[in-house]
Amino acid sequence: MTEAKDKGYSRIEFWTQDESRCGLMPITRHRITAKGIQPIISGEYNFENFYLYGMTQILTGERFILELPTVNGECFKLFLKEFVKEKGADKFHLVFLDNASFHSEDCVTLYENMAFINFPAYSPELNPIERFWRDLKDWLSTKCPKSLDELSDLIMEKLKSYTNDAVKSLTGYKYLVTACEHAIA
Fold it and tell me: Is the whole model's pTM more than 0.85, yes or no?
């Protein structure tokens, strides 16, 4: 936190970041039905997809999500550029993220007002935004979009329905909330 204050930032925000693949492949979940009745699901496999890049604010539930065609360093740089443009270059952003190979040094050193902390490798259970993606995909599992445009529209509809409190309840891991509160106290 002293790094942010030394650079003249009076406000520090804490974010978690991740990417999620969204495609036309059916999402299956367990369903409860009457005895002897099997649920009907779409069996049509289609491998078209896009990715959601997202960040959720640990203390407030605020979020920033961008739909991009693939997952790589160039898209990650574009995501960070749009994030800083929308969420402000006047604040310091501390971002927790996974160890994806495209989160390379040249990506994470682009902005003076951002610092990154990696979660340990192969530990998605530590990243709160994973629960947000899970909730979104649970909702999507009841839908059968026929095109990527229809899927994108469905996702946008659902994303608009989330309130900050709903996101905060999904992503408010006690250990991170406590650590962030202590850091700014």
Answer: yes
